Amino acid sequence: MDLTDRVVVVTGGAGGIGAALGRRLVAEGAAAVVLADTAADRVRAVADGIGPTAHAVVVDAADADQVSALVADVERQYGRIDLFCANAGVATGRGLDAPDADWERAWRVNVLAHVYAARAVLPGMLARGEGYLLHTCSAAGVLTAVGDAPYTATKHAALGFAEWLSITYRDRGIRVSALCPQGVDTPMLADGLAAGHLGARVIAASGAVLTAEQVADVTVASLAEERFLILPHPEVADYARRRVEDPDGWQAALRRMVVRLGPGG
Protein backbone atom coordinates (compact mmCIF):
# COMPACT_ATOMS: atom_id res chain seq x y z
CA MET A 1 0.00 0.00 0.00
CA ASP A 2 1.27 3.43 -0.94
CA LEU A 3 0.50 5.65 2.07
CA THR A 4 0.73 8.93 0.17
CA ASP A 5 -2.48 10.96 0.46
CA ARG A 6 -4.23 8.20 2.42
CA VAL A 7 -6.83 8.77 5.13
CA VAL A 8 -5.99 6.68 8.19
CA VAL A 9 -7.59 5.96 11.57
CA VAL A 10 -5.47 4.62 14.44
CA THR A 11 -7.06 3.46 17.70
CA GLY A 12 -4.96 3.39 20.83
CA GLY A 13 -3.27 6.48 19.47
CA ALA A 14 -2.36 8.17 22.75
CA GLY A 15 0.96 6.40 23.15
CA GLY A 16 3.11 3.40 22.37
CA ILE A 17 2.72 1.77 18.97
CA GLY A 18 -0.35 3.83 18.10
CA ALA A 19 1.41 7.16 18.56
CA ALA A 20 4.50 5.91 16.72
CA LEU A 21 2.34 4.74 13.84
CA GLY A 22 0.65 8.13 13.71
CA ARG A 23 3.98 9.94 13.44
CA ARG A 24 5.32 7.56 10.81
CA LEU A 25 2.15 7.61 8.70
CA VAL A 26 2.23 11.40 8.54
CA ALA A 27 5.92 11.24 7.60
CA GLU A 28 4.96 8.86 4.78
CA GLY A 29 2.65 11.50 3.34
CA ALA A 30 -0.76 10.47 4.63
CA ALA A 31 -3.38 13.15 3.93
CA ALA A 32 -4.97 12.74 7.37
CA VAL A 33 -4.29 10.56 10.40
CA VAL A 34 -7.06 10.38 12.97
CA LEU A 35 -5.80 9.22 16.37
CA ALA A 36 -8.49 7.76 18.61
CA ASP A 37 -8.16 6.97 22.30
CA THR A 38 -9.97 7.25 25.62
CA ALA A 39 -7.09 9.26 27.12
CA ALA A 40 -8.23 12.68 25.92
CA ASP A 41 -5.31 14.84 27.04
CA ARG A 42 -2.64 12.41 25.90
CA VAL A 43 -4.08 11.73 22.45
CA ARG A 44 -4.55 15.45 21.83
CA ALA A 45 -0.94 16.08 22.87
CA VAL A 46 0.28 13.40 20.45
CA ALA A 47 -1.74 14.84 17.57
CA ASP A 48 -0.60 18.39 18.35
CA GLY A 49 3.01 17.17 18.39
CA ILE A 50 2.68 15.52 14.99
CA GLY A 51 1.23 18.48 13.14
CA PRO A 52 -1.84 19.68 11.23
CA THR A 53 -2.50 16.45 9.34
CA ALA A 54 -2.99 14.54 12.61
CA HIS A 55 -6.28 14.86 14.47
CA ALA A 56 -7.30 13.55 17.89
CA VAL A 57 -10.69 12.15 18.82
CA VAL A 58 -11.84 10.72 22.13
CA VAL A 59 -13.31 7.30 21.35
CA ASP A 60 -13.58 4.00 23.19
CA ALA A 61 -12.56 1.37 20.62
CA ALA A 62 -14.46 -1.25 22.62
CA ASP A 63 -17.77 0.60 22.20
CA ALA A 64 -19.54 -0.34 18.96
CA ASP A 65 -21.63 2.83 18.79
CA GLN A 66 -18.61 5.10 19.32
CA VAL A 67 -16.61 3.28 16.64
CA SER A 68 -19.49 3.47 14.20
CA ALA A 69 -19.82 7.21 14.86
CA LEU A 70 -16.06 7.67 14.45
CA VAL A 71 -16.08 5.98 11.05
CA ALA A 72 -19.12 7.97 9.91
CA ASP A 73 -17.53 11.25 11.01
CA VAL A 74 -14.22 10.54 9.25
CA GLU A 75 -15.96 9.40 6.06
CA ARG A 76 -18.17 12.49 6.13
CA GLN A 77 -15.17 14.79 6.55
CA TYR A 78 -12.67 13.11 4.22
CA GLY A 79 -14.89 11.02 1.95
CA ARG A 80 -13.25 7.70 2.80
CA ILE A 81 -11.02 5.70 5.13
CA ASP A 82 -8.15 3.99 3.31
CA LEU A 83 -6.47 2.32 6.29
CA PHE A 84 -7.96 1.47 9.68
CA CYS A 85 -5.43 0.49 12.34
CA ALA A 86 -7.21 -1.37 15.15
CA ASN A 87 -4.40 -0.99 17.64
CA ALA A 88 -5.95 -0.63 21.10
CA GLY A 89 -5.09 -3.43 23.52
CA VAL A 90 -4.98 -4.33 27.21
CA ALA A 91 -3.05 -6.84 29.30
CA THR A 92 -4.00 -8.23 32.72
CA GLY A 93 -0.97 -10.08 34.06
CA ARG A 94 -3.38 -12.63 35.54
CA GLY A 95 -4.00 -16.35 35.18
CA LEU A 96 -6.95 -18.37 36.44
CA ASP A 97 -7.23 -15.86 39.27
CA ALA A 98 -8.28 -13.16 36.80
CA PRO A 99 -11.80 -12.00 37.71
CA ASP A 100 -14.56 -12.09 35.12
CA ALA A 101 -14.28 -8.31 34.75
CA ASP A 102 -10.67 -8.67 33.49
CA TRP A 103 -11.70 -11.36 31.03
CA GLU A 104 -14.57 -9.21 29.81
CA ARG A 105 -12.38 -6.14 29.36
CA ALA A 106 -9.70 -8.14 27.52
CA TRP A 107 -12.33 -9.66 25.25
CA ARG A 108 -13.92 -6.31 24.45
CA VAL A 109 -10.68 -4.40 23.81
CA ASN A 110 -8.51 -7.13 22.27
CA VAL A 111 -11.16 -8.84 20.13
CA LEU A 112 -14.50 -7.06 19.87
CA ALA A 113 -12.83 -3.72 19.12
CA HIS A 114 -11.49 -5.34 15.94
CA VAL A 115 -14.94 -6.69 15.11
CA TYR A 116 -16.55 -3.29 15.65
CA ALA A 117 -13.94 -1.59 13.45
CA ALA A 118 -14.43 -4.09 10.62
CA ARG A 119 -18.21 -3.84 10.79
CA ALA A 120 -18.09 -0.06 10.61
CA VAL A 121 -15.41 0.50 8.00
CA LEU A 122 -15.83 -2.42 5.59
CA PRO A 123 -19.05 -1.24 3.89
CA GLY A 124 -17.36 1.89 2.58
CA MET A 125 -14.21 0.01 1.59
CA LEU A 126 -16.18 -2.69 -0.20
CA ALA A 127 -18.23 -0.10 -2.06
CA ARG A 128 -14.98 1.42 -3.39
CA GLY A 129 -13.40 -1.98 -4.01
CA GLU A 130 -10.35 -1.23 -1.90
CA GLY A 131 -9.25 -0.71 1.69
CA TYR A 132 -6.78 -1.88 4.29
CA LEU A 133 -7.22 -3.21 7.84
CA LEU A 134 -4.24 -3.38 10.19
CA HIS A 135 -4.91 -5.29 13.41
CA THR A 136 -2.40 -5.25 16.26
CA CYS A 137 -2.55 -8.83 17.51
CA SER A 138 0.79 -9.32 19.36
CA ALA A 139 3.21 -12.23 19.21
CA ALA A 140 1.02 -13.63 22.01
CA GLY A 141 -1.48 -14.43 19.26
CA VAL A 142 1.12 -16.56 17.51
CA LEU A 143 2.73 -18.01 20.64
CA THR A 144 1.68 -17.58 24.29
CA ALA A 145 1.89 -14.79 26.86
CA VAL A 146 3.08 -16.70 29.92
CA GLY A 147 1.49 -15.36 33.08
CA ASP A 148 -1.48 -13.76 31.28
CA ALA A 149 -4.33 -16.11 30.39
CA PRO A 150 -6.83 -13.45 29.20
CA TYR A 151 -4.22 -11.77 27.00
CA THR A 152 -3.15 -15.07 25.45
CA ALA A 153 -6.68 -16.24 24.71
CA THR A 154 -7.90 -12.94 23.29
CA LYS A 155 -4.83 -12.30 21.16
CA HIS A 156 -5.18 -15.75 19.63
CA ALA A 157 -8.79 -14.85 18.87
CA ALA A 158 -7.73 -11.51 17.37
CA LEU A 159 -5.24 -13.18 15.04
CA GLY A 160 -7.83 -15.76 14.02
CA PHE A 161 -10.32 -13.03 13.21
CA ALA A 162 -7.76 -11.10 11.15
CA GLU A 163 -6.97 -14.25 9.16
CA TRP A 164 -10.69 -14.84 8.58
CA LEU A 165 -11.10 -11.29 7.30
CA SER A 166 -8.17 -11.71 4.92
CA ILE A 167 -9.47 -14.98 3.51
CA THR A 168 -13.02 -13.65 3.17
CA TYR A 169 -12.40 -10.21 1.68
CA ARG A 170 -9.03 -10.10 -0.08
CA ASP A 171 -10.53 -11.02 -3.46
CA ARG A 172 -12.89 -8.05 -3.02
CA GLY A 173 -10.04 -5.56 -2.73
CA ILE A 174 -9.55 -5.57 1.04
CA ARG A 175 -6.04 -6.09 2.38
CA VAL A 176 -5.51 -7.23 5.97
CA SER A 177 -2.34 -7.31 8.05
CA ALA A 178 -1.84 -8.67 11.55
CA LEU A 179 0.87 -6.85 13.48
CA CYS A 180 2.44 -9.28 15.98
CA PRO A 181 5.35 -7.72 17.88
CA GLN A 182 6.86 -9.36 20.94
CA GLY A 183 8.57 -7.02 23.44
CA VAL A 184 8.00 -3.31 22.80
CA ASP A 185 9.02 -0.42 25.04
CA THR A 186 5.52 0.91 25.70
CA PRO A 187 3.51 1.93 28.78
CA MET A 188 1.91 -1.54 28.73
CA LEU A 189 5.31 -3.20 29.25
CA ALA A 190 6.41 -0.60 31.79
CA ASP A 191 3.21 -1.01 33.79
CA GLY A 192 3.59 -4.79 33.72
CA LEU A 193 7.15 -4.59 34.98
CA ALA A 194 6.15 -2.18 37.74
CA ALA A 195 3.43 -4.61 38.82
CA GLY A 196 5.83 -7.56 38.70
CA HIS A 197 3.84 -9.43 36.04
CA LEU A 198 5.57 -12.61 34.92
CA GLY A 199 4.96 -12.04 31.24
CA ALA A 200 6.54 -8.58 31.35
CA ARG A 201 9.58 -9.98 33.18
CA VAL A 202 9.95 -12.74 30.58
CA ILE A 203 9.89 -10.13 27.79
CA ALA A 204 12.42 -7.93 29.58
CA ALA A 205 14.70 -10.91 30.24
CA SER A 206 14.65 -11.86 26.55
CA GLY A 207 16.70 -8.78 25.70
CA ALA A 208 14.65 -8.29 22.52
CA VAL A 209 12.65 -5.18 23.35
CA LEU A 210 12.10 -2.83 20.42
CA THR A 211 11.07 0.80 20.49
CA ALA A 212 7.60 1.70 19.25
CA GLU A 213 9.29 3.63 16.45
CA GLN A 214 11.11 0.49 15.28
CA VAL A 215 7.80 -1.37 15.21
CA ALA A 216 6.25 1.44 13.18
CA ASP A 217 9.13 1.30 10.70
CA VAL A 218 8.67 -2.45 10.15
CA THR A 219 4.91 -2.01 9.91
CA VAL A 220 5.10 0.64 7.19
CA ALA A 221 7.56 -1.48 5.19
CA SER A 222 5.27 -4.50 5.51
CA LEU A 223 2.20 -2.48 4.48
CA ALA A 224 4.06 -1.53 1.32
CA GLU A 225 4.48 -5.26 0.62
CA GLU A 226 0.91 -6.01 1.77
CA ARG A 227 2.13 -8.81 4.01
CA PHE A 228 -0.50 -10.50 6.19
CA LEU A 229 1.71 -11.40 9.14
CA ILE A 230 3.95 -8.55 10.32
CA LEU A 231 6.70 -9.73 12.67
CA PRO A 232 8.90 -6.88 13.93
CA HIS A 233 10.76 -9.58 15.89
CA PRO A 234 11.73 -12.05 13.11
CA GLU A 235 12.66 -14.66 15.70
CA VAL A 236 8.93 -15.10 16.40
CA ALA A 237 8.68 -17.02 13.10
CA ASP A 238 11.34 -19.44 14.34
CA TYR A 239 9.55 -19.79 17.69
CA ALA A 240 6.31 -20.53 15.87
CA ARG A 241 7.93 -23.26 13.79
CA ARG A 242 9.40 -24.85 16.92
CA ARG A 243 6.02 -24.62 18.65
CA VAL A 244 4.32 -26.49 15.79
CA GLU A 245 7.08 -29.02 15.11
CA ASP A 246 7.77 -29.89 18.75
CA PRO A 247 4.95 -28.65 21.00
CA ASP A 248 6.09 -30.71 23.99
CA GLY A 249 9.64 -29.41 23.77
CA TRP A 250 8.40 -25.84 23.27
CA GLN A 251 6.16 -26.00 26.33
CA ALA A 252 8.93 -27.58 28.40
CA ALA A 253 11.25 -24.68 27.56
CA LEU A 254 8.60 -22.17 28.59
CA ARG A 255 7.94 -24.05 31.82
CA ARG A 256 11.64 -23.86 32.69
CA MET A 257 11.56 -20.12 32.07
CA VAL A 258 8.49 -19.73 34.25
CA VAL A 259 10.20 -21.62 37.08
CA ARG A 260 13.31 -19.46 36.73
CA LEU A 261 11.47 -16.15 36.59
CA GLY A 262 8.45 -16.96 38.73
CA PRO A 263 7.90 -15.61 42.25
CA GLY A 264 11.25 -15.45 43.93
CA GLY A 265 13.02 -16.37 40.66
TrEMBL record:
The keyword Oxidoreductase applies. PROSITE patterns: ADH_SHORT (PS00061). Keywords: Oxidoreductase. Residues 6-182 form the Ketoreductase domain. Coiled coil: none annotated. One of its GO terms (molecular function) is oxidoreductase activity. The keyword rRNA-binding does not apply. It holds the Pfam family adh_short. InterPro entries: KR_dom, NAD(P)-bd_dom_sf, Sc_DH/Rdtase_CS, SDR_fam. PANTHER family: BLL7251 PROTEIN (PTHR43391:SF26), RETINOL DEHYDROGENASE-RELATED (PTHR43391). Belongs to the short-chain dehydrogenases/reductases (SDR) family. This is NADP-dependent 3-hydroxy acid dehydrogenase YdfG. It comes from Micromonospora echinospora (Micromonospora purpurea). The lineage of its organism: Bacteria, Bacillati, Actinomycetota, Actinomycetes, Micromonosporales.
